[in-house]
Automatic annotation (TrEMBL):
This is Integral membrane protein. The lineage of its organism: Bacteria, Bacillati, Actinomycetota, Actinomycetes, Kitasatosporales. It comes from Streptomyces finlayi. The keyword Flavoprotein does not apply. Keywords: Membrane, Transmembrane, Transmembrane helix. Residues 1-33 are annotated as: Disordered. The keyword Transmembrane applies. The chain crosses the membrane at residues 110-129, 141-163, 206-223, 266-285, 301-319, 331-355, 375-397, 409-431, 463-484, 531-552, 572-593. Residues 13-24 have a biased composition (Low complexity).
């Protein structure tokens, strides 16, 4: 008898369990043990979406077993399906269900809610990925990335500068230097000038206070390094050769940004330390120029020159290198990553020694030198960088315009402007809130008596806090406009809803609820207009605040002698209201964050932006929340490739919501031989509706069309009531199946029926598996996948 070919997993076919008879299609003489090879199984790999899910919910069974993975992300099966590959006869007519659970990549304990305080960093990182679609113009594309990274660097400087303002200026310089203020704060007693202790000298006070911004910078470095080790260090499937062609998400180095994140982390950490050193040095050197001490004056100039040189090196490192996506780059710039933060720490130590040198005649009056100028230059730099980014985006979009791209390619600059506005409002509001607390009943920036000095932050921060109420007013007007619009659309949709259920008796209440769900879901398509309005207002008010601080070196609405004018009264009210609103906003942000990580329902509500933002690798800001896709995409790719290679079976990856984006990204990473055995089923998918419009260079029409051409079969399910998912709008060739199915009815039944004796719920974005169309489309996809080839017997030679 001729030898029997080996099974694809390397096992001897004679040792396979003979659990079924030989299929009729098998060649004569095939042993019964090879039946497992001839009837290769089919696998359905389920990937959940926003809000997470448990394996028990996804598999519909309380008994589940982890088959691979760890406590962070893992693949689960029902306990009875763990050995399914060894029992192929039991799964001849159905796929083996598996669930990939990645909830813990974006959720955890309540402490992780503090990531929400770094929201500006995440938002500016999104701007990098919103680059318009373009062909060619590599230098312009590179310039776009450089500008976004520079905007991100200014946000780090702004955060650390705000910490310096609170700790060095407001607390150590102004409050501790004022008897009226330090006398009310017992914890400041050892710094108070009234005690005349060793720490009472201004330089030593601010040197001690520098521990706060230094600790903040060190904490950001630690969080970035820890998450970098857990996320960015996951190696992708080693299957693709070096290539810059094809879709970006399919390139071998796309999901491995270890080198860039390490460089940026070193640069931003050094920038934070240099900012603190600069705050200490500038204020001290200013005094030394007026004092009769040539040596200290020379030291001050030399130290300032060294800090400027360090800042130039940081800018060079940020601009020098972008992402490496065309190849798997495992190298690290170890010398740079180590020496740059270390050198900045040396500069910081020298600045602390320089500021702490004894200067008995030095007294602290007014505000700390350098604060007004620093915040003004940072704000001006941000406005100019955003405008330059807008020009570059327009140039890129004009070369390859895409019809549905948001704001005609200006989505990235608009989002970058929002990141700067968030940073400015948070820094200005926090400084104003701390000044309110330190000043007690007084108004920050205003003297309460002839012998009591004014205590307050730089004027620009006060102006920025003052623009918070106008921004909130604009938001309220926008929300009111779209609320009225939704109500009108609801009325217009009533006839269409009743037409979708022609055999039902119309019920005005039921029809109204369904129409309202559809109208509310339609609001997602108007998000670009909301962002455009908000970013435009932020740009305008930011320019007004900068101009007001430059022309009027005083607190907005500071009352002159006598009765204040109406304009002054409005400005003063806006300043006070903005100060309280930012404190309330920070508290609300932390509260929502903790609830989102503890309560799955709340996570579904506010998790959309969060999951979109943290899907993308850290390409612009290293202190942004970590990218979960750099762990999830390699997980899915490895699982699909190894399972199909081992079993030669068919696989359908079934992704819901954000899981559909992860599924598409994983399929792009598969080698061609594996992709032929994989089908893609997406439902509630934001692939075109959100990602295609906001990130056209990565999910634009050409990218989705290319995915359809590369995947053997793909089907997408969606509903009119879904506020997140929608059609992918891929126009197939005449000989190929369309991707989008007609919109699923939601609810499944209008009224009570024998199949639905109780009122059917409006599902919206959830529970697509409840629709019979889901199982039908999945089975069709599996049927369209090619069956594994039956091994031929070797015939002996005559």
């Amino acid at each position: 008898m001729p030898p029997v070919p080996a099974a694809p997993d390397g096992r001897n076919p004679e040792s396979l369990p003979p659990e079924a008879s030989v299929p009729e299609s098998a060649p004569p003489g095939t042993p019964e043990g090879i039946v497992a090879y001839l009837t290769a199984p089919a696998l359905e790999l389920l990937v959940h979406g926003v809000g997470g899910a448990t394996p028990e919910e996804m598999l519909g069974d309380p008994r589940t077993t982890r088959v691979t993975g760890d406590s962070t992300a893992a693949v689960f099966r029902r306990t009875e399906d763990v050995d399914a590959e060894d029992r192929p006869r039991d799964y001849r007519d159905k796929p083996i269900p598996e669930a990939y659970v990645w909830s813990n990549l974006t959720s955890g304990n309540g402490i992780r809610a503090l990531w929400l305080l770094l929201l500006p960093f995440m938002v500016v990182n999104l701007a990098h990925w919103m680059r318009p679609t373009t062909e060619g113009k590599a230098r312009t594309v590179r310039l776009y990335g450089v500008l976004v990274r520079l905007v991100a660097l200014t946000l780090t400087l702004l955060l650390v500068a705000a910490a310096c303002e609170v700790a060095l200026d407001l607390t150590a310089w102004q409050c501790a230097g004022s008897t009226s203020c330090s006398g009310k704060k017992s914890w400041l007693g050892f710094l108070s000038t009234a005690h005349g202790g060793w720490w009472s000298q201004p330089g030593r006070r601010i040197a001690l206070a520098a521990l706060v911004p230094v600790a903040l910078t060190a904490l950001l470095w630690y969080l970035s390094h820890r998450t970098w080790s857990a996320y960015e260090s996951q190696q992708p499937l080693p299957n693709a050769e070096e290539s810059s062609a094809g879709p970006a998400l399919g390139r071998p180095g796309f999901w491995y940004g270890r080198r860039l994140v390490a460089r940026l982390r070193a640069a931003h950490t050094a920038a934070g330390f240099l900012t603190v050193a600069g705050a200490l040095t500038v204020a001290t050197a200013r005094y030394d120029r007026t004092a009769d001490n040539t040596l200290l004056d020379v030291c001050g100039w030399a130290l300032q020159g060294a800090l400027l040189l360090g800042g130039a090196v940081v800018v060079w490192v940020v601009c020098r290198r972008g992402r490496t996506e065309s190849r798997f780059d495992a190298a690290l710039d170890k010398a740079l990553v180590t020496l740059l933060p270390a050198a900045s720490l040396v500069g910081l130590a020298l600045a602390v020694l320089y500021a702490g040198w004894s200067r008995p005649a030095w007294t602290s009056t007014g505000r700390l030198d350098g604060g007004d100028r620093s915040f003004g230059l940072l704000t001006l730099a941000q406005l100019l960088l955003v405008l330059a980014l807008a020009v570059v985006a327009v140039l890129l979009n004009r070369r390859t315009p895409v019809a549905r791209t948001v704001m005609r390619g200006l989505g990235g600059p608009a989002v970058a402007m929002l990141a700067c506005a968030l940073g400015g409002v948070m820094s200005g509001g926090v400084a104003q809130r701390v000044a309110d607390w330190l000043d007690g009943p007084g108004t920050p920036g205003m003297a309460t008596g002839p012998d009591v000095p004014a205590l307050g932050p730089p004027v620009l921060l006060t102006w920025q806090a003052s623009v918070i109420p106008p921004i909130l007013l604009v938001l309220l007007l926008v929300a009111l406009h779209y609320g009225i619009r939704t109500w009108r659309v609801r009325s217009a949709l009533r006839p269409r809803v009743e037409a979708d259920y022609p055999k039902e008796n119309p019920d005005p209440v039921r029809t109204g609820r369904i129409a309202l769900a559809r109208a509310a879901a339609d609001l997602t398509d108007h998000a670009p207009r909301m962002v455009a309005v908000l970013s435009g207002v932020s740009l305008l008010l930011g320019g007004i605040a900068l101009l007001g601080a430059f022309l009027y070196d005083e607190v907005p609405g500071r009352a002159a002698k006598g009765t204040p004018s109406p304009v002054e009264a409005v400005a003063h009210t806006s300043q006070a209201l903005g100060s309280w609103l930012i404190g309330f906003g920070v508290l609300l942000l932390v509260t929502w964050g903790r609830r989102a990580y503890r309560d799955p329902k709340a996570r579904r509500t506010i998790g959309i932006l969060w999951d979109v933002g943290t899907f993308w690798p850290r390409a612009a800001h290293p202190f942004a929340p970590p990218c979960y896709a750099e762990r999830a995409v390699p997980d899915l790719t490895w699982r699909m490739a190894t399972w199909t290679e081992r079993t030669q079976g068919r696989l359908v990856i079934s992704g819901h919501s954000q899981g559909s984006v992860l599924s598409a990204a994983a399929v792009w990473q598969l080698p061609q031989r594996t992709r032929r055995r994989v089908a893609l089923l997406t439902y509630g998918a934001p692939l075109e509706r959100l990602y295609g419009r906001w990130f056209p260079a990565y999910f634009g029409p050409s990218c989705l069309r290319g995915l359809h051409d590369e995947v053997d079969c793909w089907r997408n399910l969606w509903r009119h009531t879904d506020p997140i998912g929608g059609p992918v709008r891929v126009v197939p060739d005449e000989d190929r199946h369309p991707v989008d199915r007609d919109a699923l009815l939601d609810p499944l039944a209008y009224g009570r029926t024998p199949d639905h004796p109780l009122p059917a719920p409006i599902l919206g974005h959830s529970d697509y598996q409840a629709d019979p169309a889901f199982a039908a489309e999945r089975d069709k996809l599996l049927a369209r996948l090619p069956e594994p080839a039956v091994p031929r017997q070797n015939t002996p030679k005559d």
